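Quick review question:
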């Protein structure tokens, strides 16, 4: 700044002095509001400034002359002011830096205690500031997880992102209630959709939603109608822009055990809201609030939105599962992959080969694949009802793991192109499989199985007996008899197996590990299970050659098999749960798969 501030007339001098006084007063007042610890600093600073100003000859204010800088404010005072400004701007490192210099240079200064007060205030406020920043990051992360649970469609005509629940689609399902919201630039609007399908038009007069004695009439001035001539079905639906008050009502409705909807018109239709509808409303409500949070923190820029551009071409569905749909595209993609795997293993003529049940392999594969996809969709819906989702970070990790199986990006793109797949399809499958796996693992973890259940299962099944045996296989009866003689003379079984056996287990001393009944050929199994632990068999013959067995261990009690029995019992319960979910699923097949030809798939 130089040694002097320059020439100033009386008005300028007064303005400068008042400016410094008012600056310190403003900063000090603001800091006192935030940090009581620096009250002493403000008072002392103001006294120093006033004494500095009063030391000037009042007659000098009427003259134009050079005013020395140090007569206005000392260097210690300037450093003190800069520390206060740095604290006000949350620049804690700058406060620390200045204080370090202050300590070194002005350790005996009268205002050192003021500097120390600012320094301590900075440390305290920095801790609070960092805590709030961490809470903010956690809030942003949670908001992103809520948004990841929603479907997002991008309308390129209106440049709008539409967010909606992941459970069903209106206009292709029966009576449904849901909410969705639209985002364009900084504007977010949320809507309520209600749809009805029946044998005739109701011609809505009003729609009532109620829970626990609270009723809300949904006002609308536009009603859409559509008649499906093919199935003679009548569709009606409304879309209503909602405010925060109605949104709060809908959330409470979704959390109630007595939530109902009534369509009133030519006749009245009453029903309770389904669990899927309730979950959808809660998910979208959370997502709506989450998007507001992200915009508030300007974090939406870091949230990558998959934009699925709408087109005029409608998606074809192959089957409906609990009011959610499986795309024909997904079925055909997986059918192509299965086709290639079968043809690589069995040849291209496999499809006309007749199976034991009279079906050929083409019919079998198409039916099995569709059944598996129906089960997966039912499991995916059940997982969503249980609140299980997949965070963006977890999804990104799984997607990168999937891509890593390809040597190069070019190889990955070639795979997509050759199988007529899109990256969006791959992502859908990865997300589906991960959500299902999380649900199944959680189900297994939550099982609370009593010991008596496991023991009862063990006693009823009674096929957990196991033996561990070592084995010598030769192709000559005389050699086999010679080996028996040597074993009877005390030769080591493992060494004899390594020396003479032609079986793959020879390198392990003939050790076959534990095996249960049904795992070996009948002749071998009978001999092994009849032997006692430590006993060696006589030579016996099978289609593979001449065998000698030594049983080295047996497991036949519940306690010995407990761990394996428990795992098998849990697996059976999981299998039963999957079958139960599949059996309870409402399934409507929309395309006859017999018309799909595997051999014509390209």
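Suggested answer, residue by residue:
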């Amino acid at each position: 700044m130089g040694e002097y501030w320059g020439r100033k007339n009386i008005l300028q001098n007064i303005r400068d002095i008042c400016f410094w006084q008012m600056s310190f007063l403003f900063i000090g007042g603001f800091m006192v509001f935030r940090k009581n610890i620096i009250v002493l600093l403000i008072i002392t600073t103001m006294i120093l400034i006033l004494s500095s100003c009063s030391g000037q000859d009042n007659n000098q204010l009427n003259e134009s002359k050079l005013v020395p800088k140090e007569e206005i404010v000392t260097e210690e005072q300037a450093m003190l002011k800069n520390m206060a400004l740095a604290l006000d701007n949350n620049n804690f490192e700058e406060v620390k830096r200045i204080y370090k210099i202050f300590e070194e240079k002005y350790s005996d200064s009268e205002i050192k205690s003021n500097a120390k007060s600012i320094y301590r205030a900075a440390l305290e406020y920095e801790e609070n500031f960092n805590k709030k920043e961490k809470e903010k990051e956690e809030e942003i992360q949670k908001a992103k997880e809520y948004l990841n649970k929603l479907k997002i469609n991008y309308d390129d005509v209106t440049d709008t992102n539409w967010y909606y629940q992941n459970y069903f689609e209106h206009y292709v399902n029966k009576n449904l209630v849901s909410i969705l919201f639209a985002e364009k630039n900084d504007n977010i609007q949320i809507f309520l959709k209600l749809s009805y399908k029946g044998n005739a038009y109701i011609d809505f007069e009003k729609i009532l939603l109620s829970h626990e004695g609270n009723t809300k009439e949904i006002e609308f001035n536009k009603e859409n109608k559509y008649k499906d001539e093919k199935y003679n079905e009548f569709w009606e639906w409304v879309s209503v822009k909602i405010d925060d008050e109605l949104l709060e009502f809908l959330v409470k409705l979704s959390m109630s055990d007595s939530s109902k909807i009534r369509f009133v018109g030519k006749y009245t239709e009453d029903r309770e809201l389904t669990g899927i509808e309730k979950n959808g409303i809660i998910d979208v409500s959370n997502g709506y609030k989450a998007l507001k949070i992200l915009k508030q923190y300007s974090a939406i820029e870091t949230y990558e939105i998959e934009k699925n551009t709408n087109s005029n071409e409608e998606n074809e569905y192959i089957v409906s599962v609990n009011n959610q749909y499986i795309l024909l595209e997904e079925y055909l993609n997986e059918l192509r992959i299965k086709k290639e795997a079968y043809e690589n293993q069995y040849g291209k003529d496999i499809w006309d080969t007749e199976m034991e049940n009279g079906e050929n392999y083409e019919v079998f594969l198409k039916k099995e694949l569709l059944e598996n996809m129906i089960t997966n969709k039912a499991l995916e819906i059940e997982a969503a009802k249980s609140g299980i989702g997949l965070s963006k970070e977890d999804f990104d990790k799984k997607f990168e793991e999937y891509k890593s199986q390809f040597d190069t990006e070019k190889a990955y793109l070639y795979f997509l192109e050759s199988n007529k797949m899109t990256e969006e399809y791959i992502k859908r499958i990865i997300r589906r499989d991960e959500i299902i796996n999380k649900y199944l693992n959680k189900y297994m973890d939550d099982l609370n199985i009593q010991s008596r259940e496991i023991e009862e299962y063990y006693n009823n099944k009674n096929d957990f007996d196991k033996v561990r045996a070592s084995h010598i296989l030769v192709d000559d009866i005389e050699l086999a008899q010679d080996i028996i003689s040597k074993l009877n003379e005390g030769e080591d079984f493992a060494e004899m197996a390594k020396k003479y056996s032609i079986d793959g287990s020879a390198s392990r001393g003939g050790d076959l590990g534990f095996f249960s009944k049904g795992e070996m050929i009948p002749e071998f199994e009978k001999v092994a299970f009849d032997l006692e632990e430590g006993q060696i068999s006589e030579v016996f013959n099978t289609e593979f050659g001449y065998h000698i067995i030594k049983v080295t261990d047996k497991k036949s009690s519940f306690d010995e098999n407990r761990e394996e029995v428990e795992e098998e019992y849990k697996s059976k319960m999981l299998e039963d749960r999957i079958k139960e979910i599949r059996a309870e699923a409402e399934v409507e097949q929309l395309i006859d798969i017999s018309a799909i030809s595997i051999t014509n798939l390209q």
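Why it works: The chain has four domains: 4-131, 149-309, 318-447+585-595, 466-555. The CA atoms of residues 83 and 95 lie 5 Å apart.
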